[in-house]
Specification:
about 15% strand; two-stranded antiparallel sheet; alpha+beta
Amino acid sequence: MPVKVMRLEGERFELALEDSLFPKALKSIPHPPARLYGVGRPGALAEGLAVVGARRATPYGRGCAKRFA
């Protein structure tokens, strides 16, 4: 099965924990990340659900992610 490569388009951004746009819900968890890196508009960040994967996911992992999403 060929791997589909997705290209992200848009402005890249980096938010530090102390930045005002850093998501409040993420600040409240134990051991929040020191920085967030993203593509798009950082002001559009909102609480929700996300699927985060590995760069070299196994076929099993890709299948699970597809079913969960």
